[in-house]
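sry for the spam today, last one i promise. struct tokens for design, 121 residues
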């Protein structure tokens, strides 16, 4: 007759503790999943429209900051008025008037457009 060896109580307690931790973890995970599901509902079409507008504006601003920059005016009268406002020779001026058709007439408008696109509001 073979004699069975009894397992020490610590092993049984460890198994019970492991089981308890698995159940507690699963319950916590289920609670997290259920609680996160009730967030703000967003209409997919509204989201596409808003993202589309932001992407277009960001592409325009990226072109201004990292690409060609703001378009310069070709109007001779505006150019003459702009250059004559400086007390210097026209050839030494490194600033050029921006075309008003681009939508930005001063730094404030450009800054506001940048903040509108690249901040969380």
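last one done:
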């Amino acid at each position: 007759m073979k004699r069975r060896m009894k397992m020490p109580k610590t092993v049984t307690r460890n198994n019970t503790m492991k089981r308890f931790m698995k159940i507690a973890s699963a319950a916590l995970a289920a609670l997290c999943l259920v609680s996160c599901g009730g967030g703000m509902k967003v209409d997919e079409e509204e989201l596409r429209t808003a993202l589309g507008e932001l992407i277009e504006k960001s592409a325009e601003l990226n072109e201004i900051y990292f690409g060609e920059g703001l378009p310069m005016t070709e109007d001779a009268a505006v150019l003459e008025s702009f250059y004559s406002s400086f007390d210097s020779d026209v050839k030494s001026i490194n600033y050029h008037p921006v075309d008003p058709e681009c939508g930005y007439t001063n730094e404030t408008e450009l800054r506001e457009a940048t903040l509108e696109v690249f901040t969380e509001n």
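The chain has a mean pLDDT of 76. ok im logging off now
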